[in-house]
Design brief:
The complex is a heterodimer.
Chain A (H helix, E strand, L loop, with lengths): L11 E8 L2 E6 H18 L9 H21 L7 H19 L10 H23 L17 H13 L1 H31 L2 H7 L1 H37 L4
Antiparallel strand pairs in A: 1-2
Helix pairs in contact in A: 1-3, 2-3, 2-8, 3-8, 4-6, 4-8, 6-7, 6-8
Chain B lengths: L1 H28 L4 H21 L10
The chains are: A mainly alpha, B mainly alpha.
Chain lengths: 247, 64
């Protein structure tokens, strides 16, 4: 039986240095993060600036328009201040997810610490920018309008807990989808080899999980894009709260 | 599956944050176990609020 968890193991490639007694290692995960960044940079820098766009330039312009439209619809035109952040997040998650679908590669967003760091970055941006822009008016976010004064304290506490649960659900959603998808894919793929070892009848039976694996790969391709998009749109919705709280 | 994961992660996040807040409250003020009980239930309420919002039944905070 092939271990479906083995694909998530981190292997140390080399050691960068030490902070205290903690070793800072360059792992498989770091290597694939670097690969994603290099791919994005190559795509962006190699796109060219022709008036009639070529193939690569079309892709880059499409990506720009897509993210810009997402920000404008869910955070308003003011949200374009955060375009660099949101675009980097979207491209990083999208490219690393797509790279992760290729067999024998590592999926960066299948580790919760990675997605949680990204979600925490968004969360802290919202808090810091919210207070910087609105001052104490930012607290209006926790006080919904039109609530009777008797139950207001209860509602405010619930709203605060709901606010603090955001980075958790934000990160768990991306992480759980990528993890579950890759484990399912691996399990179905291992059925093919297991059945294939059982002679002629097994080989015929293996056609079923093989077809399912192909179908699941297509599904995973969609999930890779969809989860990057969901992460982006949630980022925009949260940033919208920082820009206009208590609307 | 995506929808199920989305809604369940919302609920679990609410309960988890409530529980952690209650636990921290108890540790600081040594009111164990009442802080935990109260904040756990409040966290459950916040989780349900998250789920209802993310399912689009109640109006979103940003679209009110």
């Amino acid at each position: 039986m092939i271990d479906p968890i083995e694909q998530f193991h981190l292997n140390k490639i080399f050691t960068i240095g030490h902070i205290g007694n903690q070793e800072i290692a360059f792992t498989t995960s770091s290597a694939y993060m670097l690969l994603a960044v290099v791919l994005i940079a190559a795509m962006m820098l190699g796109a060219g600036r022709a008036l009639v766009p070529g193939r690569f330039q079309s892709v880059v312009e499409l990506a720009y328009e897509f993210v810009a439209n997402t920000i404008r619809t869910s955070a308003g035109s003011h949200g374009m201040t955060f375009f660099p952040l949101v675009f980097s997040l979207f491209m990083f998650i999208f490219v690393s997810n797509i790279v992760g679908i290729i067999p024998y590669t590592f999926t960066v967003s299948s580790h919760i610490i990675v997605t949680f760091s990204l979600a925490l970055l968004v969360f802290l941006t919202v808090i810091i920018y919210g207070f910087y822009k609105n001052g104490l008016k930012f607290f209006k976010l926790f006080v919904p309008s039109g609530i009777p004064a008797v139950i207001l304290p209860l509602v405010v506490v619930i709203e605060i807990i709901s606010f603090f649960s955001r980075p958790i659900s934000h990160s768990v959603r991306l992480f759980a989808n990528m993890l579950a998808g890759h484990v399912t894919l691996k399990v179905f793929a291992s059925f093919v080899t297991m059945l294939g070892a059982l002679g002629f009848v097994g080989k015929v039976g293996a056609l079923l999980p093989l077809g399912l694996t192909v179908a699941l790969t297509g599904l995973e391709l969609m999930v890779a894009f969809l989860q990057a998009y969901v992460f982006t749109i949630l980022t925009c919705i949260y940033l919208n709260d920082a820009i206009h709280p208590g609307h | 599956m995506a929808r199920g994961l989305r809604l369940s992660s919302e609920l679990i996040a609410g309960v988890l944050v409530g529980a952690v807040l209650g636990w921290g409250f108890d540790r600081l003020l040594s009111t164990s176990p009442f802080g935990f009980i109260v904040f756990f239930l409040l966290g459950f309420a916040a989780g349900v609020l998250n789920v209802v919002r993310s399912a689009g039944i109640a109006p979103d905070r940003s679209r009110r």
